[in-house]
Protein 1
Amino acid sequence: MNPTPTLVANSWLTVFFALLLATLLSALVGWFVKKRALPLKPMMAFSSQQWRFIRIWVKVALVVGVILPLVMWVTFWEQSLVRQFFSCYLLTVAVQLACEVTLSRLLTQSVVVIIGTLYTGYRIWQVWEGLHLVAYPMYGLGLLGLVLCFWVANLIMLMSVAIPSIFPESEEQSAETG
């Protein structure tokens, strides 16, 4: 990886506007769902097997998406670009979690799917940029690559499991299950 001293996704201004935009869009969608102006389900309609998977997935997200980057933040503290990257990353995670808790209580539980999708997309950009900031030692590069792979997998999971769970059943699906 070539060292690049430029921060875009991990500049404080970009992070502020990305978090603001993602939070406002999520709140707007959640409000429209609550007012029944959007035909999305207020709760995720997961099967019991999907709920088991989601519970395990959340634990993996905690380890790979929060604890591992926190350890790396401390480990690479002396490198200012890497410190800024991990600070921006961890701020994004914290704001996402706060939004999920707050907006799911105030508006509708299914808003966590929208929040997760928007924030995961941004986080992938953040980690991709973070991979290219400095020449990491091999273990650091591998761990950060693992974090990136997890967030890409999370986006795939959101698109294939979570997003479909908040869409209303079509008349065809209702006829097949009924």
Note: The CA atoms of residues 37 and 44 lie 17 Å apart.
Protein 2
Amino acid sequence: MAVSLDERLAALRATYHRLDPAEAAAAAREGALLVDIRYGALRDRDGTIPGAVIVERNELEWRLDPAGTHRLPQAVSYDLPVVVVCNEGYASTLAAASLHALGLPRATDLAGGFQAWRAAGLPVAPPDGIPTRAAPSIAADGAHGVG
């Protein structure tokens, strides 16, 4: 039987605690890694969350796998608390579920995404006209692309 995307999102969200903006900010202060998976046009239009790392969605699993050669320098443990941020809190649910499947049980996402963060009055680095770039990996060859 087919399941709608809304039903799938609801089922996934029932398996973990999503964070509201205040909780996400507190988690970041306590050492959680905020990961912005929004595409560049949105980051460049709306700004970014100070301290969040930028990881393109299609590279997320490679960047956060602690055993991977293309991981972020911060991705040192499968127990790493991760808060995934998308624009409005939909794609981040799917991303968090993928990270759970990868073995990162403390991955969660920001309910309402970047837009909820901004609406809550939390810090946002405004766009400066310079295109944002994804965070580099630890790949020995210096390559940033995977897949």
Note: The longest strand covers residues 33-36.
